[in-house]
Amino acid sequence: MHSWHEDLLNLLVTPVTSPQAIFADIERAAYKLGFEHVAYGFQAPYPVTQPTVTTINNYPTDWQAHYHRSGYMHTDPAVLHGRRSTQPLLWTRQTFADNPALWQDAQDHGIRTGWGQSSIEANGSGSLLCVCRSHELVTPRELQAKEQQMRWLVQVAHISLSRALVAAQSACASTLTARERETLQWTADGKSAQDIADILTLSKSAVDFHIANSLKKLNTPNKTAAVAKAVQLGWLR
């Protein structure tokens, strides 16, 4: 019988599996801590102005639909806090004082109390893990007893799920050729198409061709976005 920590540690050392399989393990760990619902959100570093956000949760389907329909992700105090701070946040009525409608709606849908913490990377990516339940509020004594485990759960979720989500995105994208990677690498170093042509002894039109193919494969609008996405996918050194 593995301990609680050993089960989570396995997520860090085993080969990447599907995000759904990893989430199931995170869900079981949260349940052992007394929380029936788990929500995880991963924000990619691209596009820069409107980063892609991927969410996985086991909330009741009616609450998921209502939350999305109401646009609460853009006004949720827990989400807003997680985007600017990695300090944990306990959900209380006071926490949601600026958005009482969301608090009341959550209560009505059986989400009575929760706790969340984010992880933010230097490249702009980040994630937020929230655990919540429909019964009694989290007391200071319970929080003190479980906070270390919950913080550990946040870190494991961030490392394992972000890795799996990036791998899934990479698998969906067409692989770049060696020459396409090379031209993007020089682009990342600030070189112009003509500079790259001179360095690689190619024509400028050939460089433009490779860059255009890279943009198409990465589904990005320009070279800057292509470089950012290629780096996130681990395709550039």
From TrEMBL:
> GO: which molecular function terms?
DNA binding
Q: What residue stretches are annotated with the HTH luxR-type domain?
A: 169-234
**What keywords appear on the UniProt entry?**
DNA-binding, Transcription, Transcription regulation
Biological process annotations from GO: regulation of DNA-templated transcription
Query: Quick check: keyword NAD in the entry?
Result: no
Q: Transmembrane segments in this chain: where? A: none
Its protein name is Autoinducer binding domain-containing protein
Give the signal peptide, or none. none
Classification via Gene3D superfamilies: Transcription factor LuxR-like, autoinducer-binding domain, Winged helix-like DNA-binding domain superfamily/Winged helix DNA-binding domain
Q: Which SUPFAM superfamilies match?
A: C-terminal effector domain of the bipartite response regulators (SSF46894), Pheromone-binding domain of LuxR-like quorum-sensing transcription factors (SSF75516)
